Amino acid sequence: MNQTRTLLFFALMFVAYLLWTEWEKDYGPHPVAPTPAAQTDAAAGAGKANADASVPGTAAPATVPNETAAAPTDGKGEQVTLSNDVLRLTIDTRGGSIVRSELLAYPDEPATKTNPTPPPARLLDDTPEHFFAAQDGLVSSNGAAPDHRALFHAEKKEATLADGQKSVSLDLTWTDASGVKVVKRYTLKRTDYVVDLDQRIENGSSAAWTGNAYHQLQRVPAPKANWFKAYTDPAQHSFFGAAWYSPENKFESLSFLDFAKKPLNHQITGGWISMLQHYFFVAWIPPADQNVTYSSTIVDPNSATPRYLVRAFGPAIQVAPGQSADSVARLYVGPKLQGTLDVIAPGLELTSNYGWLTIIAQPLHWLLSKLHAISGNWGVAIILLVLLIKAALFKLTDAQFRSGARMRKLQPRVAALKERYGDDRMKMQQAMMELYKKEKVNPMAGCLPILITFPIFIGLLRVLSESIELRQAPFFGWIHDLSAPDPLYVLPVLYFLVTLLTQRMMPTAGMDPTQAKMMKVMPLIFGVFFAFFPAGLVLYWTVNGATSLLQQWWINRSVDKAEIKARTA
């Protein structure tokens, strides 16, 4: 396969990949829908017709008002804050839920002269249009229990990690006239995005208390973007929805489009459940030894802003009179930091959601991070990664480029064959094959390099698109954010020039006229196409194209010298 067909192959495969990723969002494999028995159990657990879909039920659930009913009349909740050096949480005492989280190390937008200190990125959010909350609570079949709408009391309005402290905690207390008391404690450690939750149940009543703890994430999806933003915003190409992990089935996901069609209902031991978005995610992580029921539902599905909910419903807890028991869980609220997440819980690094390219993308991310540790600049690390990949594949690409150089030398003879046989394509192809055989040129020499380099390119595309490390990472000069398009379009123009020069070096004799016309406009198409891609990706592809161009030029020159030497010998 000559260089012309190589470029066309890459173009078609790249477009096919983009189409495939979009198809997967709507029609790809998703979790198996629950069996009729499971659906019956789920319906029974939902309680009566007026039960709140956001509150789980036990074997004999109490009737709970739905979310659209009047607010509880036992007082108004207040907001309190819990902070460490990387995370600031806002907790509503109405339910003791985390309703807002600010990632202090990640500005919402790059700093500018007019806005040198932009606000931190917000993940959990209590505004109606971006509602996203991490909720937890208790339900009981034979006594009082505080769910995620009960009114708690906080002893202080703010708890902040002080210098020299390793951790900071905030307690919220709920009491019932029967003597049951629940103390909900949230704890943050220094430089940690994990929130430790301990719900301590103190049974001061005269009867045994039986109930369950649950932890859930509830959010309103982002509004649908217009076509231009859907194409230019890298976040629009990232998975947005629910995901969970089990030791048996590993990582699974559920888009918001499939919540109604294929609801989750699984029992898992040693797993976690999450809501994912570009760069960040939130995940509830129950104790690894607990058998937990994971489920999904839509709260108020007929409203203008339905909320999508995923829940982890824990095993039964029994507390004898005069005794106490603790229900613990962890909540991760933060970035998709590769290399650190699997330490928190098995499979948590899969939240980067590289899909079937994980086996390629994860090693590339590891290598890229090592190169950044050496260079101190993510743009330089991308360039170094290109050079390493080119060096590793040098022998393969050398055979491809030498085949292209020899075929380029045969262009006059191929043109003569085309003139001789005219429109007789069969005789033309036979004559070309005989010519290639006589001159010992293998037109298929470029196939193997393509089969190897294309998955690497797509894997790196996923890495550069999903890596939180490249978010707002500067390169040099005018490029202040490698995860955003080049603001001056310099890199797309350079890529256009590289592609144009590469095309000039390709053999074109014997090419179909339609294919030849396509090749002439291909550099411009790709230049425009890459104008809206993240600068980091365009940097990679520009440097990759430039090194390939240099390699092809050098090989063409060496083939010319060898031919001259053979004629003069």
UniProtKB/TrEMBL annotation:
Q: What is its main location?
A: membrane
- Asked if the keyword Transmembrane helix belongs to this entry, the reply reads yes
Give the Pfam families listed for this entry.
60KD_IMP, YidC_periplas
What does the entry list under GO cellular component? Answer: plasma membrane
Calcium as UniProt keyword: no
Q: Which GO terms describe its biological process?
A: protein insertion into membrane; protein transport
Which HAMAP family does the record associate with it?
YidC_type1 (MF_01810)
What's this protein's name?
A: Membrane protein insertase YidC
This protein's species is: Luteibacter yeojuensis
Tell me the organism's taxonomic lineage: Bacteria, Pseudomonadati, Pseudomonadota, Gammaproteobacteria, Lysobacterales
UniProt gene name: yidC
